[in-house]
């Protein structure tokens, strides 16, 4: 039987965090989740409207950089496990305004680590808690050429302000393990997609623009490659790492689904053409594809070797990209009001500026 846990989940109102909380509620009813989220433009309480506050769940609106708040939560809630999602997460935003990335991703992670270290020391430094699982990205490893994969031993080479801030936070987490013995684990995952993803990221952006007949902006030549993973498979991997992972270890999580951006965009257009019909002009949605100026410093290819996760933990993705993208498109079609609320909410200034 899996043990009862008192978890602090940070960033639980964002894309991956909210999918994680849904999965925990469905599959680990004995785990109590305290969700600390600042509700930035990327945080959305509607993502968790089906999760009721009570013995198993509490939402706290607050900043991971707020040291008194974070420390008091560790005390009050007797936190024994931290799953740290909260971050500024969008590469394009990090290029135009890196400040928030440095603050949240680096100072915020440091604040949580200090609180975890203090709580852990008060309990005599028992090895079984609080476990600090830091959710990170494959982007810390930089960019690949045509062949090869990122493994846990690949040297860090971050190349955007976002990935540099995540790399800094990864190093802090490792340093707290090495220096103080804090039980930590780090997961470095590839690109996620699925329900509740914010429509500034490629897949929901292309869904929304192609559904409404707007231009589909493809950066550069469209041949950059990402390794796509369905979000629930990522969340399942995190649960399994918490249960079976080794303290001090890092785990790469990937979908084994390498696609060029243009392949992804074309697939979404084809699916929408088939599901809701061609554009009023009679053309396929592919006619909306527009090649635009490339992202500054655009990483060419990401691809993950998840052998360690498969061999040590026994995890593997449950859906292929073709299955996952269809599930995602169906979810967005069935939840159009979610997307419209997000686009018409705090996000609208950025959205209008980028995609008017
Ligand atoms: P997201 O942007 O959708 O959500 C981030 C959440 O963090 C939001 O709810 C936001 O309100 C909250 N937040 C931001 N600043 C905060 C602060 N100072 N204090 C408290 N809460 C704050 O991000 P996501 O896509 O769900 O990513 C979650 C994590 O997973 C991030 O750490 C990201 O680096 C990592 N990751 C994401 C991907 C991906 O493809 N999306 C892939 C690998 C790793
Ligand atoms: P994104 O979803 O922003 O994730 P990341 O930058 O973390 O990989 O972008 C995925 C890929 O899609 C990336 O190569 C950039 C590209 N892209 C476009 O071509 N057009 C767009 O409008 C966006 C948002 C991304």
Search tags:
single chain, 356 residues, alpha/beta, Rossmann fold, seven-stranded parallel β-sheet, two-stranded parallel sheet, 12 helices, globular, binds nicotinamide-adenine-dinucleotide, binds thymidine-5'-diphosphate
C-alpha geometry: globular
Mean residue pLDDT: 94
- Number of H- or I-type helical stretches: 12
- Major β-sheet profile: 7 strands, parallel
CATH superfamily name of the domain at 6-192 and 230-254 and 302-320 and 348-355?
A: NAD(P)-binding Rossmann-like Domain
Q: Mind telling me the C-alpha Rg?
A: 20 Å
CATH topology of the domain at 6-192 and 230-254 and 302-320 and 348-355: Rossmann fold
Strand order of the largest sheet: 3-2-1-4-5-6-11
What is the CATH level 1 assignment of the domain at 6-192 and 230-254 and 302-320 and 348-355?
Alpha Beta
Ligands in the model, by name, code or SMILES, are: nicotinamide-adenine-dinucleotide, thymidine-5'-diphosphate
Please provide a written account of the structure.
This protein has a domain at 6-192 and 230-254 and 302-320 and 348-355: Rossmann fold. The chain is built from twelve helices and 13 strands. The protein has helices at 15-27, 67-77, 91-96, 99-122, 161-180, 202-211, 231-244, 261-276, 307-313, 321-334, 336-344, 348-355, and strands spanning 5-10, 31-37, 57-61, 81-84, 131-137, 184-189, 192-193, 216-219, 225-227, 229-230, 250-253, 258-260, 289-292. The strands form four sheets. Strands 3-2-1-4-5-6-11 form a seven-stranded parallel β-sheet, sandwiched between helices. A two-stranded parallel ribbon has the order 7-10. Strands 8-13 form a two-stranded parallel ribbon. The longest helix has 24 residues, at 99-122. The relative contact order is 0.13. The model has no long low-confidence stretch (mean pLDDT 94). The structure holds nicotinamide-adenine-dinucleotide and thymidine-5'-diphosphate (TYD). Nicotinamide-adenine-dinucleotide (NAD) is lined by residues 10-11, 13-17, 36-40, 42-43, 63-65, 85-87, 89, 104, 108, 135-137, 166, 189, 191-192, 198.
